[in-house]
Amino acid sequence: MIYMQNQQLHLFSIYSCVIMNSSIYILVFVQLWLLSLPCRESVCIPSERETLLKFKNNLIDPSNRLWSWNHNNTNCCHWYGVLCHNVTSHLLQLHLNTTFSAAFYDRGAYRRFQFGGEISPCLADLKHLNYLDLSANYLLGAVPSQIGNLSKLRYLDLSDNDLLGEGAEITEDDWFG
Predict the structure, then answer these.
(1) Cα–Cα distance for residue pair 17/131, rounded to 1 Å
(2) What backbone torsions phi and psi does residue 127 show, to the nearest 5 degrees?
(3) What percent of the chain shows pLDDT beyond 70?
(4) Given 3-state DSSP classes, what are the helix, strand and coil percentages for the chain, each rounded to the nearest 5?
(5) Beta strand spans in 19-137 (E)
(6) Mind listing the pLDDT tens digit for each residue in 138-151?
């Protein structure tokens, strides 16, 4: 009887080891499989890419900072100054400010680095845009009223430009009212 119990205990022990080893193999397999999956990369939404290209057409870019903004480079989520949502791929932020730093030895060098031109009303087509910084450039003309239609916009900096007209002065009441 004792021999039978020892044999059953031995079989139970072997069975437990097999199950435990199988579980470890399955766990290792699943981890390796997860590591082999490609990371989710934001891929530009075509209509938003076209809007950015229209916006670029209204800008003067003397330092060619927007060299990546072209039809051959179709993923606008990798373009200079552009930030997209990593799941939906919608364009969320535009960081196109020009800040003066010690790298600019004189005002002329700084001026050649600034964006010029006008703010295109087509920016209003970027419905998911929540951050827009065009500060410290040499943008001219009026602020397009269509910018006010960007319902998700939470940060807007147009300071240190040469913007004119009614839209150039946006009060807190207009923005948060």
Answers:
(1) 57
(2) -60, -20
(3) 64
(4) 40, 15, 40
(5) 59-60, 82-84, 91-95, 116-118, 131-133
(6) 999 999 999 999 99
